[in-house]
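Moderator note: this is an archived Q&A kept for reference. The question asked for a predicted structure of one protein chain; the sequence and the answer are reproduced below.
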Amino acid sequence: MGLRGEWFSSVGGNTDSEWAFAVFLDALGGMGYDPNSGSLNQTGFGHSVLRKALLATIKRINALIAEIPEKERKEKDEGLDCRSLLNFAVTDGHSVVCTRYVSSMTDEAASLYWSSGTSWQEDKSLKGRYRMERRDKGADIVNAPVVAAFISILEAKADSIMTDDWVIVPTNSTLTIHKQAVMIHPIVDEYYNPNPSYTRSTGFAVSKGLDATEAKERGE
């Protein structure tokens, strides 16, 4: 893979998330930033740096997959399926950057949502159901980064979250949360389609046990 020794040796297992994070740390190092630097605790790397490092991570993973010989790739349900669902979330303690991504022109990525507010409160009319409370229009974002990163799994297994509190992140996009700002940027690469009405299939993500649809599409 060509990782720097410190990041290669830091991986203690064989999960894809561990290796992807090592690639991310290596990307930060390649950009001239030291993930081990204690001097960054007060300021962080900056959301732009985190986003560029995540994009470099996705690009590198795609490049590695592209090296797989064509004869071993998926063809008529035989061989390897080289599509990857790459939903990541990273933070430097000051900003959060997430990705909703799939290395395919025809498939939807696993879903990703964001929400903002001041606190989670149980809905008074629906016991056991929770929604984001907003005291005013300038309410701070609370808990959104952590929950948004895993909302596709939560929705598949729990009914405790009010889905109308969440905003969908488009497939193959980054979500950046910095202070009270939320920014969404497209990931422009070989799998990008600028047409907002372009329809993708949800079958691949669903086959992996993930959700790939908006709440309104499920009639909620």
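Archived answer notes: The radius of gyration is 19 Å.
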